[in-house]
Amino acid sequence: MLSRFLPICTSCKQIRDDRGYWKQIKTSIRDNSEVEFSHSICPECAKKLYLNYLKKNNRFRKFRNLPKTTLPLDI
Fold first, then answer.
1. In sequence order, what are the residues at sequence separation of 6 or more whose Cβ sits closer than 8 angstroms to the Cβ of residue 19?
2. 32 near 55, Cβ under 8 Å?
3. What is the DSSP letter of 37?
4. What are the structural domain ranges in the chain?
5. 25, CA 20 to 30 Å: which among 6, 9, 40, 47?
6. Residue 69: which H helix or E strand, with range?
7. In the structure, what pLDDT confidence band is assigned to residue 22 with cuts at 50, 70 and 90?
8. What residues does 69 pair with on adjacent strands?
9. CA angle at residue 1 from 22 to 9, to 5 degrees?
């Protein structure tokens, strides 16, 4: 089970488990909780990675002023 403190590598973001093994965040959380992951993209990364596509396809205006925690699913 996940404990209150998780040692996380500042460089690669792996988490050290109770036995001293380093695991990817998703693996560690999946193995120690009932959490399932769903992939998405935050607005900041969408702008950084897909700005040209969004502007070209007239989708940038749909989310440029939304709160940072919100991103339409149809970009």
1. none
2. no
3. -
4. 1-39, 40-70
5. 47
6. none
7. very high
8. none
9. 25
User: And the tokens for 4?
Assistant: 């209150």
24, amino acid identity: Q
Q: How many CA atoms lie within 13 A of 7 on its CB side?
A: 8
Go through the chain and tell me how many residues it has: 75
Average pLDDT over all residues of the chain: 76
**Structure token pair of residue 62:** 């749909």
What are the tokens at 51? 């700005």
pTM of the entire structure? Answer: 0.46
Burial class of residue 61 in the structure, from the number of CB atoms within 10 Å of its CB (0-12 exposed, 13-18 middle, 19+ buried): exposed
Strand, helix or coil for residue 4: coil
